[in-house]
Amino acid sequence: MRLSPEEARRRLAPARVARLATVDAAGHPHQVPAAFAVRGDTLVTAVDHKPKRHQGLKRLRNIAVNPGVCVLADAYDEDWSRLWWTRADGLARVLEPDRCPEQLSWLREKYPQYRDRPPDGPVIEIAISRWTGWAAADPVGPRAGGG
Amino acid sequence: MRLSPEEARRRLAPARVARLATVDAAGHPHQVPAAFAVRGDTLVTAVDHKPKRHQGLKRLRNIAVNPGVCVLADAYDEDWSRLWWTRADGLARVLEPDRCPEQLSWLREKYPQYRDRPPDGPVIEIAISRWTGWAAADPVGPRAGGG
Lengths: 147, 147
Hints:
homodimer; alpha+beta; 7-stranded antiparallel β-sheet; 24% helix
């Protein structure tokens, strides 16, 4: 079953990890897992810690040429009647961390890991224009525990 | 640390789910979670079961205009020293299921779920040209259990 936009957002927001897809100048997709936080229709993720800087540059270069991005969270279970996923599509922009204390506070609030070691790289802010999702079974209906 | 192509493939192949990113004609990325199987540098995934058919059409339309795709698997852990991900980039083509019994057998072998209910939609076959990956800690080195 399709999820409503509200239900898609409700499931995506608390997910601990999502995947950020961007597109390079040649039209090739790129994906990285990302910690993220959501407020309303805004999703933020940060380029954290120097070992990832190389990857960060690729996603940032992609956003510079192609601001359209996609964020996906999903739940895997060997019982395929429990599968679900949720996706957010929107336009991204890159912010320097000293320009977005508010957005960084969303990330620190969600992830204790960031409280000890705040992200030191740019912040990607995404204006979500479309929330979609799918679940194998109706989460609240009579089929929730069934096949 | 960066993973070698061999290590990236060794980690991706047994992952139970990965995310397939494709790009539409307007250059916007699209992602879906996918069951998949790997042999050598070939990765296959199938469009299974009618309820997903709508989504399947989108990814198939994308591949028709943009065969360059990306597949990502990652491990999340609240201990961020255990994070890793692995990514495969390549060119996709779409096969009718009755033309690829071999590829379908790879999927059935990996997923008991497919033995009872074989995928009934097209098969996406990806020729992987690049395996990349990253792990927060060296999986076999002295830092494996550390921070």
